Structures are given as C-alpha cells and as structure tokens.
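Sequence design from tokenized structure. All designs in this work follow the same two-part layout: the structure record, then the generated sequence. An example of the structure record is given first.
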C-alpha cells in the first residue's frame, strides 16, 4: 500500500506570482504514483494496440488545477493587440484559439503511437487535440513536423544561474520547458549569511561552476528555503523551474561544522532537518536531494555533507517530506562511479524502505561504470523488485556517455610542463602557432606528464578519447579513438593527441568518456531508456561549465538514438519522448504537464526531426565576471511553447517570459 501524501503545494514556480496557501491554489491531494504505473505498466506492444486508454486514466486520476488557471482576468499581448482574457463566466471575444498548431505528428508523451492531429491552446492550456476548426491568434503549420510536450529536465544545477539568466541556456535551446534544481545534495538554501561563501566554494568544488560567476551573479535575498523560492518566484524567465532542498546546505544549516564534518546526526538534529524539509515542501519544494558519492568533496577535501548520513537520518527526513505533502528524494548513489563496492545495493535497500514507509518517490542516478559494466542491469532488477513490494523507485539515466570535453580551451595534459607554461597566457591562435613550432613541440612532448588533475589520465586511457566532428557523434566507434589512430599510424599516443589538439586552429575538442561507454556503444542507453522504471536525466545543465554541455542530450537522444543510429537498435520515438516528458513529469507529481492532451499546460515543442541536430560545442565567456562555459546550440526546434506562449522560434528568443 502507498501512503497518501496529503495536500500538495504548488510545485513549480512561475515568475511574478506569489505562492498562496494550498487551499487557495485549487490543488487537490492525491497519492502520487510512479511513472511506470501511469505510463508504462504492462507490455509495450499491448499499449500500442490500445492507444490513449492509459493516458486518459492517468489524466483523470492525477489532475490538479494548474496554477495558470487564474480566478481573475489577465492581460495578454498577442497577435492583433492587447485584449482581455476572460475568467469564469466571462464571454470570450476575439479568435477562438490563442494558438493553433496544425497538422503535426503528435507524440503525446505517454508512449502511445504517434498520430497526426491539430493542437489548440487557450489561456495557457491545451484546449483540444484532434481535427480542429476555428480561427486562432497564431497558427503554426506543423505539417511534416513533430509536436511533443515540452521536455522536463529533472537533473539540473541552475541554482545560481536561475537568478541571472531568464532563458536558462543552453537547456531552453534544446526544448526544455521545466527544469528541476537542487540536485546532488547541493544548492544555496537554507543558508546563514556567514555561510554563503562556503556554499559557493562547495558548488564550485563539486559542480565546477566558477565561484567568480556565482559571487558576481547571485543577489542573496534569502536564508530559509521558502525565502529562496520567493526570490525565484519574483524573477521573469522563459521556462518553469522547480527546486529540491539539498542535503548539504540543510545539514550544515542545522549542525554547522558537525554537519560539514559528516558527524552522525543526533535525534534532535534529525527532527530539526525533517521540520525544515516539511516547511520547504509546504512552501513549494519538489523534494529533497542527497549525495552518497565520496568523490564529491569540498575544497578542503572533506566529503559533501550528508555523504555518510545514517539510515535513521534519511528516514527521518523522508518522513518530514511526507508530512509536508510528499515529493521526491533524489539520490546520487555511493556506487555511482563504481568506486564503492556494494554502494548501489545498499542505497536501493534504504531507498525502498524509505519509500514504503513514507509513500514518497525516490529517484536514483544510474549509469554504466567501467569497473562493473553490467551492474546497471542488476540495479534495474532491484528497483523493479522493490516496486513490486510497494516502493516507488525510479532510475534516472543519461542519454549519452558521461565524459568531459578536453582541448586547449578546456583541460589537457600539458599544464605544468615548462615549455607549455611559457606560452599558456597567449591567446588561442598565438598559442596554437607556438605549439606548432617543432622545437617547442619536442620540448613539450619530452617532458614527463606532471600528473595534474585529469591530465594524468588522458594518454593512459586514450582508448576512451574521441575527437568531436560536426555534427558531434556521441556513439563513436572504437576505431575513432586516439589510441586506435595511434596504432594505425604507428605513432606514440602522446604525439597523436598533441596533433589532435592543434586541429581546427586549436579549437578542436575531444570527448573523454568517463562512464556510460564501457562497451564502446550505446546499447545500454537504449535499453535503460526503454525500461518502465527509468527516465532521462543526468544532463547536469548549468554544471561543469568548462568541461561538459550535456544539457544538449535531449537533442542527441532524438537525433542520434531515435533517427540516425546504425550501430544497434534504435530507440523508438514514442519511448524517447515519454522518457523526457510524461515519465519525469509523473515522477515529480507534475500532473499538469508532460502530455499533449486537453486540459494540460501548453508546454510544447514543434520539431523538424529531419533537420534536428546538435551543433559543435563552443566556448563562450558570458557568465557573470566573464567566466567561461561550454554551450551547444541546436537546429530543428521550430518553436518552443511555454504556457501557450512561443518562447523561441528556430532557436531565437522571442522575448516572452511566461515561466
């Protein structure tokens, strides 16, 4: 039996609207059920035979009145000028529909077969799907195009960026319309003023977000987590965001140095943390996140607060979450990088117990590891068994290999070698020219590897290093690796790697896969995303700014795994869309979105699948303080719609801020 979670507060923040009392929001309390029950129970072929039935039951069973259904008139700028939009009982004037997307191939987010249909939008909500007549203020001709729900990215680190970037790029460029913050047990609330700098340094250490950018960009206006949500609510943006209360700041807020030293929590500590989580959820938090991975450390080398938290602490916090109205516990497992033997098994066990006792959902980050390349199969079996006994566990998996981008503009193995350090300060073009000089090349290559950072591993694991071409291939065959090239050319790996860095005038980036590519193919990714107990995640939007840009993985899944894959079975289109829309929305209790159906929030993507592609990563210096980050744009997103308003057309910002 799943315990009811009671009255839920509004889950997602919309700019310019203050969160009210739950009774005033029209939010109805429902026990939230796991995504696999709503969308994926039973045989997939059976669902295809009876399209629509399951998602109709889901829609009725979890419907809450969305926040965008207002009790009073509002004003809206549309084609044809400003006009009054009616409230209940007010006669509507003007076009019948605000937006009409005509003749597209609708992939509705439930896993049901794609179909040709029109989609009508009125007052920020999908009003009709089918063959639709009547006029509209705006019409998008979607003949030959896909129409999907807006993508729900449950794993981002925009906790700081959300305070200065209304677009949350690059995620918006890749069709994301809802982003979940506060993952991996790290974030910026709750926090006392004297601890702000420490949280910034912690975020830089764990998530590689430059402290200079965070110091320059964040305007601190909060201490408690509800105050953090209020600060976000006041900001205009193009997409919706939701936040989880993270274990690291919470533990430190309650226990101070004892918390950051990972000392055991006392019963009083646990009670206080549980009360703060309850308060956060009542104020609108989506859930709670915790990190068990010892490799994630503070600048002084101490593991992230909460890494070794006892089960009593986790259960206590889970009960606080349930009392507040329920939500999700996001877990970075101790076995996530394959470096803690038995870590996944232990984490699944306590997560299942927590879920059964409290009724809350738990999502565990899961990827293939190099040390145990088939462990993910066991984890999915453990999750399925736990769910069969009453738990609500879901894996979140990456849509492409986990790795970093190395090159002369990011990380490489030459820092610390005198012949390189002499020119390290030069602009890229001059540095590249200097590295082409035969004498400097010889001196750099003759110097022993100083073993600084990731540079000490690059040449030793050159079979995992792949040059990125245009368009980038995120399933590169083994023969494309630096190691294979060196073997073919009968040259040392060090020379081949050096020359690769100098290609494209020194701007060449190489993918160094660290996880999720043990078999040098994406078969496991297709299989994991097809599992009923998994959703697409781990994109890490906003994090590891100068090393990755996996926020673009939504585009990679559709363009490479669905459309272009030749090295194995392709991921079915409907399965892919479900994993990034309906399934994650259901996991987080966002019953107003994630599905193209009448009465759902009008968050939509219109996609030209034939033209869809991820562009090459590029280095920009657009963070506050001029700090750098890697971004990737996309081609093929004809329109992205949030709450019925087009926020980007062909990748260009429209200026709309309905989030």
């Amino acid at each position: 039996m799943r315990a009811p979670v009671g009255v839920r507060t509004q889950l997602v923040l919309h700019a310019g609207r203050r969160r009210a009392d739950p009774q005033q929001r029209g939010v109805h309390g429902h026990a939230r059920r796991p995504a696999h029950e709503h969308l994926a129970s039973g045989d997939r072929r059976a669902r295809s035979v009876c399209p629509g039935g399951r998602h109709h039951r889901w829609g009725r069973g979890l419907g809450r009145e969305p926040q965008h259904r207002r009790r009073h008139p509002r004003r809206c700028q549309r084609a044809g000028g400003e006009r009054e939009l009616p409230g209940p009982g007010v006669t509507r004037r003007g076009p019948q529909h605000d937006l009409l997307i005509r003749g597209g191939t609708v992939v509705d987010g439930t896993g049901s077969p794609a179909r040709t249909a029109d989609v009508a939008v009125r007052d920020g909500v999908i009003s009709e799907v089918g063959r639709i007549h009547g006029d509209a203020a705006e019409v998008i001709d979607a003949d030959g195009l896909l129409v999907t729900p807006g993508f729900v990215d449950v794993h981002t680190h925009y906790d700081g960026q959300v305070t200065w970037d209304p677009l949350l790029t690059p995620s918006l460029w890749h069709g994301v319309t809802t982003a979940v913050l506060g993952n991996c047990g790290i974030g910026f609330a709750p926090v006392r003023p004297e601890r702000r700098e420490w949280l910034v340094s912690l975020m830089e250490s764990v998530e590689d977000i430059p402290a200079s950018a965070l110091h320059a960009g964040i305007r601190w206006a909060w201490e408690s987590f509800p105050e953090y949500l209020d600060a976000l609510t006041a900001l205009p943006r193009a997409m919706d965001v939701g936040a989880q209360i993270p274990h690291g700041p919470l533990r430190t807020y309650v226990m101070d140095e004892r918390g950051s030293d990972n000392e055991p929590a006392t019963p009083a500590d646990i009670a206080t943390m549980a009360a703060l989580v309850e308060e956060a959820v009542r104020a609108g938090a989506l859930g709670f996140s915790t990190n068990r991975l010892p490799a994630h450390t503070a600048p002084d080398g101490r593991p992230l607060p909460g890494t070794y938290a006892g089960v009593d602490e986790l259960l206590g916090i889970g009960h606080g979450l349930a009392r507040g109205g329920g939500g999700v516990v996001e877990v970075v497992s101790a076995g996530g990088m394959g470096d803690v033997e038995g870590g996944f098994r232990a984490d699944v066990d306590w997560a299942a117990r927590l879920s059964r006792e409290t009724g809350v959902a738990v999502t565990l980050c899961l990827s293939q590891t190099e040390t145990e390349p088939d462990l993910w199969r066991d984890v999915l079996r453990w999750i399925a068994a736990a769910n069969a006994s009453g738990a609500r566990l879901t894996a979140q998996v990456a849509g492409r290999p986990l790795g970093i981008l190395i090159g002369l503009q990011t990380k490489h193995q030459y820092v610390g070698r005198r012949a390189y350090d002499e020119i390290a300060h030069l602009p890229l073009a001059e540095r590249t020219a200097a590295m082409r000089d035969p004498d400097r090349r010889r001196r750099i290559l003759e110097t022993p590897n100083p073993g600084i950072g990731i540079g000490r591993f690059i040449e030793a694991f050159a079979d995992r290093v792949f040059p990125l071409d245009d368009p980038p291939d995120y399933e590169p065959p083994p023969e494309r690796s630096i190691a294979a090239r060196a073997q073919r050319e009968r040259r040392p790996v060090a020379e081949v790697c050096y020359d690769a860095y100098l290609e494209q005038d020194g701007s060449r980036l190489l993918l160094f896969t660290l996880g999720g590519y043990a078999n040098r193919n994406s078969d496991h990714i297709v299989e994991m995303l097809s599992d009923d107990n998994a959703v697409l995640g781990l994109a890490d939007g906003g994090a590891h700014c100068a090393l990755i840009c996996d926020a673009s993985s939504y585009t990679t899944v559709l363009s490479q795994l669905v459309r272009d894959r030749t090295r194995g079975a392709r991921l079915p289109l409907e399965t892919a869309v479900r994993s990034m829309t309906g399934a994650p929305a259901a996991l987080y209790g966002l019953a107003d979105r994630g599905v193209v159906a009448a009465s759902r929030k009008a968050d939509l993507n219109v996609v030209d699948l034939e033209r869809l592609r991820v562009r090459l990563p590029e280095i920009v210096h657009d963070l506050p303080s001029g700090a750098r980050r890697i971004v990737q744009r996309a081609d093929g997103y004809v329109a992205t719609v949030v709450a019925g308003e087009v926020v980007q057309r062909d990748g260009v910002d429209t200026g709309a801020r309905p989030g």
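The chain is about 30% helix and 20% strand. We note this feature because it recurs in several other targets discussed in the main text.
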